[in-house]
Write a structure and sequence with these properties.
354 residues; alpha/beta; 10-stranded mixed β-sheet; two-stranded parallel ribbon; 12 helices; 37% helix; 19% strand
Length: 354
């Protein structure tokens, strides 16, 4: 029988488990401290728990939900992508992104982790490697949390910021996402504040409403990539299910209640969405949502036909948004030389296994 992973057990869950095993509630606090403060990898390490309890836990549970099988580091910086294998053999990717150099050239140890939420993806965005092999399954909350634990073990430092922009659509795995978020923000677990967590969605309207009901001041990033249904449907099939006529009102509702400006992610693809009239359409959408825009020149994916615009063209598109009064940044993908775009490392490993 496959063991359950205790990473996704909240304090209340652990209290209930201790009661089932015939132990008092204070054992739950001890167990949670071993899991998160000491990062125990075995129950044998938990020296203040009775031997019989350790044995009972070891028989039914585990403390790690995945195993890191490959780590790639960019030659141009400290960006690292790692590939993890779950108990059923499936692979998932995560990316460790270093903080930008601070004022005066000072370096920071702060890191951001790009977290995956699914094995593969069912949404099939035309520019993304994650969907090329299709959707396999949702990640459990333990597998989501396990990526953060693994990242801290690889980097030797605390993860300060999380972006759910890895493989998969987070809001299509909303139940496991909310369980993981509860422990991510728990002061007795990972203790990462909501304002340091960004959830990215390709436009899952029901999931967006569930996330709003969660009631935490999370940051939201929307993979827009097209400011009209015609353009967006060309690169994002999800737009046929939840077109802009449904998505934009849901985002307006989020904007009314959120403490943070949402970010509209916009990958610039030559002859698809990077023409200057598209900049004007994007500016109108951003103004309607009081949103900022993050432009991302397309990161080449083997097997896909899209072309990255020239740097001069990207800058002209950016200047058009600025001229329209829209807050905008342009992000060149870190780790381009290590296939850091979503799904590329997993795709390469699976092709090698064929």
């Amino acid at each position: 029988m496959e063991k359950l992973c205790l990473l996704e057990y909240t304090r209340d869950n652990l209290v209930q488990l201790m009661a089932e095993l015939g132990h008092k509630p204070f054992r739950a606090a001890q167990l949670q401290e071993w899991i998160w403060k000491h990062r125990a990898t075995s129950f044998e390490q938990m020296s203040n728990l009775p031997p019989a309890l350790r044995a009972a836990l070891d028989e039914r549970f585990c403390l790690r939900a995945l195993t890191v099988v490959e780590v790639n580091q960019s030659t141009t910086g400290a960006t690292r992508k790692f590939l993890s294998r779950m108990a059923d053999g499936h692979l998932v990717e995560s990316v460790i992104i270093p903080a930008a150099v601070g004022q005066g050239g000072a370096h920071s140890d702060r890191i951001t982790l790009c977290v995956s939420s699914q094995v593969g993806c069912a949404f099939g965005c035309r520019f993304c490697a994650s969907g090329l092999l299709g959707f396999t399954r949702n990640l459990t909350a333990s597998e989501i949390l396990g990526q953060i634990v693994a990242a801290e073990e690889i980097s030797g430092t605390r993860v300060d910021n999380l972006v759910f922009m890895g493989m998969g659509e987070p809001l299509a795995n909303i139940d496991n996402l909310l369980t993981a978020l509860t422990l991510i923000m728990d002061p007795h677990a990972l203790n990462i504040g909501a304002r340091h967590i960004t959830i990215s969605t390709s436009g899952n309207v029901p999931g967006l409403r569930r996330l709003a009901e969660f009631g935490k001041p999370l940051r939201l990033a929307v993979s827009l990539h097209g400011a009209s249904d015609e353009v967006r449907s060309r690169v994002m099939p999800v737009n046929r299910k939840w077109p802009l006529g449904q998505l934009l009102p849901a985002l307006e509702e989020w904007a009314r209640t959120s403490k943070h400006k949402m970010t509209l992610e916009y990958i610039l693809i030559e002859d698809v969405n990077a023409m200057m009239p598209e900049a004007a359409r994007l500016a109108r959408v951003a103004r309607r949502l009081n949103a900022k825009v993050n432009l991302i020149p397309y990161n080449t994916v083997e097997g896909l036909p899209w072309v990255r615009p020239s740097e001069a063209h990207c800058r002209a598109f950016c200047k058009a948004l600025i001229a329209a009064g829209i807050p905008v940044t342009m992000r060149y993908e870190k780790g381009h030389d290590i296939n850091a775009a979503c799904g590329q490392l997993r795709l390469r490993r699976m092709k090698e296994a064929e």
